[in-house]
Amino acid sequence: MATERYRSPHSDSPDFDLDRYLEEKAAEGPEPKSTEHVAPPQEQDDRYAVKNIVALVGLAAIITLWSYDWSVSNWYNSWFGTPEPVTTTIGTGIAEIPLPPPPPPVATTSSSDGFLDYLARAKELGYTNQFSSSALQALYQSGVPLEYIRQFEQAGYLSNFSYSALIGMYTSGVPVEYIQQMSEAGVVSDYSYSAIIGMYTSGVTIDYIQKLKALNLSGDFSYSAIIGMYTSGVSIDYIKKMQDLDLINDFSYSGIIGMYTSGVTLDYVQRLKELNFTDEFSYSAIIGLQSSGVSIDYLEQLRQEEIIDEFSFSGIIGLYSSGVPMSYLKELKALGFLDTFSYSGVIGMYSSGVPVSFLKQLQERNLLSDMNYSEVINAYLADN
Fold first, then answer.
1. For residues 137 and 115, is the Cβ–Cβ distance under 8 A?
2. How far does CA 90 lie from the centroid of its chain?
3. Which DSSP letter does residue 89 get?
4. SS3 breakdown of the chain: % helix, strand, coil, rounded to 5?
5. Coil, helix or strand at residue 83
6. Contact residues for 131 (Cβ-Cβ < 8 A; gap 6+)
7. Tens digits of per-residue pLDDT, 75-97?
8. Which residues contact 256 (CB under 8 A, 6 or more apart)?
9. pTM score, two decimals?
10. Is 324 helix (H, G, I), strand (E, B) or coil?
11. Residue 355, class by beta-carbon neighbours within 10 Å (0-12 exposed, 13-18 middle, 19+ buried)?
């Protein structure tokens, strides 16, 4: 056991005195300690110098590796030219795919050479006198071939259009043949290049344009109006009849399209015009009136009774379609009730059988002013 090393050879004796033994050991003093070897000062200086050299070499190696992306192979290749592919590492020990070779230099002369060829050919054809260098460059960059320009020249139309017009027509697919047809029809000078593009791309035929010109109407309609009427199927005959009836200037092109597509007869419109109703009703009102079957005679009676201004065209349609007789309206007007009730109120009371005399009774008892038409109907039906 470890404690036996402290036992005295006399500890088994019955006369052994522990206190006395400890006092004797204390009097002897501590045992001498072993001393380490201490190097002389010169030897210590040599050791410090070696450590400094090692530290400097390590620092130089770290700086060198850092400058070569921490790659020994990169450093090796830069000094000894080894043809092995260079790899880089991310993190610790993860190699990337070898770097690709640098791209070939970008060709900087192909596009300029192409334009120079274009410019040289344009000069041969005499187009440098027609267009500036910047205009030719715009034509070139827009892809307009010189052959397209040459077709305009051969057809005798090159002086009619600017370079921007040529660009617009080419990019919109307008062929020179379409321009030739317009010219033969005598309408090419009536429209801008944007109008020509719009009509061509909308499929407007030269025949349609030519017939409008024959009616002296090409100047009355914008190209967007012509496109709208053509694409809506408005016939030249319908337009001509409107012109013959002196109706063409009473409506916009959208009005003409609306009435034609809604089936409005020009006889109906003509009668409205004769009674000066075209000044009171818009084209949408005329469409609604005829499509609802409102007769011209009904409108004339409303005017004669000075009732027509009391209602909108939708109110007139409602009264006519509900069968409200003129006599009922005349009684309401005579007692001043048209200002009290809307056209829907008039329709509701007539349809419910409310006589005008009942309204008069309510007024005499000072009750009408507090009631709407629904309450009037309910009050009448309470006893009837």
1. yes
2. 44
3. E
4. 60, 0, 35
5. coil
6. 122, 139, 163
7. 555 555 554 444 444 443 333 33
8. 229, 234, 238, 239, 242, 248
9. 0.65
10. coil
11. middle
